[in-house]
Amino acid sequence: YAVRERSKYVFELAKRNKSKHFDVDMTKFADTARFVVSIINRDYAPDYASIPPHGRWQHFEVGGRPRVDQLMATWPKSVNDQERTRRLIDLFLVSVLLDAGAGQKWTYKSKESGKVYRRSEGLAVASLEMFKAGAFSSNPNEPCQVDSAGLKKINAQYLAKGLQVTENNPLAGLEGRASLLVKLGDALQNQDIFGIEARPGYLLDYLLSHPSTQASSVPVVPIPTLWNALMDGLAPIWPSTRTAIDGVSIGDAWHCNAMPSATNAPWEKIVPFHKLTQWLCYSLMVPMTKLMHVHFAGTELLTGLPEYRNGGLLIDTGLLTLKPADAKRGLEQYQINAMKQGQPNMEVVPMFSVDDDVIVEWRALTVGFLDELCFEVNSQLGLVGSKKLSLAQVLEAGTWKAGREIAEVSRPNTKEPPIMIVSDGTVF
After folding, report:
1. Rounded distance, CA 413 to CA 418, Å?
2. Which InterPro entries match (predicted)?
3. What is the pTM of this model?
4. Could you give the 3-state DSSP secondary structure of residue 371?
């Protein structure tokens, strides 16, 4: 709720062209929506109902291989649906935590197919193959699980081996990813949520037995129950360098100068995004729904994801333009970064750190525009009532894909977004 509400404040200012860092051209809005609609039509028309919700599951199926189903087929029949769901939650949680921007140089060669993958799909296939090999399990008899002891043995070197990282195949933010997994190992000690087994998958048991869950023909779990479990359960993993209030790190939430401040209280200027937690919500709901028929009530509370594909779409279609002074500052930052050894210097774009006011505002505008685009996309497709696409479906089939594809056309060498973020491996 706070994510949408506080981003909306920044968004409404921008629509009146009072943004601090971006010029907004609302005449481009319908064109942006048309581009998203063209991608949805190309891949799914006329069967819009078949669009899956946004989530990690699809990334595992790159190249048209149903890897998750193939994985489950290798488990004996004696493994029931509840344990199957636990294992998928184990896999998905670790895979999402590894899913920060990979950078343009890194590739992963599948040990199974010999094919080469990159970016999100590469990280998905790599994490799946590591999972099957027992990389995150402390039990040699049960490789296909993630547990606290298994994660605590991880370091950057261990992760580099699993992800095939070398000097010639660098992965952005490797150290940050390794430390997130080790911290997840600590967080799993929370027995209330993750059970005495200290596995992410026991989140399922926590939700099914939660007092707010209604047991009708299928279990009905309120989205705030899942959200709070993830926010509380994963609180220990966020880096201490994140925004803190009263000494407590609040994760992916940042100071934004556009926010009003009546009393100068520190929280008034904070815009929360919690992108990774929301991506987890979207991703973990899928196996629970597919295998255990859990119904999640209130999914409309989740927002669009403020990450560089969705945000990049808005810039590459001309809806948002970075103001000249900020563009100059970002380009200077890019040049400084390019001088570091091994940094590419092909297609120059403005670059900022994740806590920069430009990035915070860009992400807030992304949340605001995604809600409006969802409405406009349904309107252009002529879908009404129960046939309307959910925001999760528009993210999956439309905006994320559109953002990636327009980046590939606009910057064919690097395929990077129009604004780059210095990656520490823990945000995106």
Report:
1. 13
2. DUF1688
3. 0.92
4. helix
